[in-house]
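User: Hey, quick favor. My workstation is busy. Could you predict this chain's structure for me?
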Amino acid sequence: MNFLQSIYRTHTCNELRLAHVGSDVTISGWVQRKRDHGGVLFVDLRDNYGITQVVFHGDLAASMQDERLESVLCVKGKVAAREPELKNLKLDTGEVEVSVATSQVLSRSELLPFQVADDDNAPESARLKHRFLELRREKLHRNIVLRSKVISAIREIMQGMGFTEFQTPILTSSSPEGARDFIVPSRLHPGKFYALPQAPQQFKQLLMIAGFDRYFQIAPCFRDEDARADRSPGEFYQLDFECSFVEQEDVFRMGEQIFADLFGRFASFNREKPALISPTPFPRFTYDQSMAQFGTDKPDLRNPLRIVDCSAVFANSEFRVFKNTLQKGGHIRALKLELDKIPGRNYLDEAVNAFTKVTGQGLVYLSFDGDDFKGSIAKHVSPAEVTELRKFFGIVKPTVLFVAAGDDKTILAPLGGLLAKLGKDFALLEKDAYRFCWITDFPFYEEDTDNGGVKFVHNPFTMPQGGLEALNTKEPLSIKAFQYDIVCNGYELSSGGIRNHLPEVMYRAFEIVGYSREVVDEKFGGMIRAFKFGAPPHGGFAPGIDRMVMLIAGEEAIRDVIAFPLNQSGEDLLMNAPSGVSAKQLREVHIEVKLPKKLQTPEG
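Assistant: No problem, here it is.
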């Protein structure tokens, strides 16, 4: 049975082909375009599935003249073959058309706030306020359908690997660690609040402790944080999974199977040829290696550029900056840009100025073109050093070296930014490829510059490498975690880890950041109690659905794969959220609103 058939349609707007010529059909959809050819009106009728050209003649054409674009029509007529010169092979239905016998306007559109069929550069505020209209645009509509297909594929892959789908609570308790919570006041418990989950972290661990072996969930997560291109403000979805009796290597094998399978299924999406996918096992870099080579823990392996430590070349340099840096224990690091032609002086100077603006210190460039050697500090580089640089970097083509000197905390991240900029500016990125890698051995703690002491870098529930002994004997900033990220094309798709499952390790880990046993019992009571009744070793990770779909769709903004996103200020312009509530609603949850002074009325 075809469940798409009804009184409104015998076929969809993407279904008719030459085989249907002569058939009487009924189709319905939105008016995308109209073309008047003097008594004959051609209309592109669009539905969820595609577009069919329908043709109105005589009085029927006249009756349609005043109907606006995006009105909804139901037409009945006969399928006809288009003349050879009028075929539109860009459409699946482009060899046929429907000659309209009768038509009915099911719903009339008002004057559109922006064009749907064409991008007229309407302001973002108008597009988000009328998101239902923007979702009719072909590219965005296709992305949202893709999202559904990706989620269906994920479920199939996970179930095929023996994982069971669970749902975990949306109303939970606030956590003292992690991002900022969205909190929900309780009506029944005055002065107390629920929190929307930043992730199902504790619940999925509790499921492992409860004896379920392999869990997954397409999990909604909520974090009160600012927007950026690859992160939606407020809420997002992730593939959350956890499994018992595993080590890090086991999780890596499962993760690689998931990503290789998923991205392989959609490798041809919107492409003339399938995208290349990293072969398994994916490359691995420790956190320290990734920072040293790429200046980031989110490397884009499509970019061939790497940061190189060339301190040895300048070990005897008389250039004061290099000499002082090495004496203080710093490094001299460089990026090698090999091209057919040396970039102009303006570009080189702009790169130096951008680096200096970020770091407060200099970046120099040295150019090699045949026997010609130039640069911003060329006179300070000895002939022996020039020779050694050619040998060290294997310079045979026109090449520019961007060289920075300093401590790694100062220079690595800006060099990483320059690496990414050079890759894009000179079109060095590998095309049509998904390049994955694992980042491992993250620090367990980092300095807490706001409050002194240390704080957790990532997940406080991760097992520290070395366990309790490391927590008791090592300097906290030297401790590594069984924490890992998976990165694709410069985007972090997932964080994960092998979890702590021992109560004494958890107490000690939190003690180092300033939480007493009593606070741990209060804030993480469910988790710590569970650890005391037999917990298996377990681990997992949670790739972001939105980012995966964004990469598969070839988009750069995450809102282009989300049906109803918030704007950059965290507002829903369609539903007018966040919004005020009535005094009665506030009384019911025992809340009194006190606005910041700048938002108060003269009456207070």
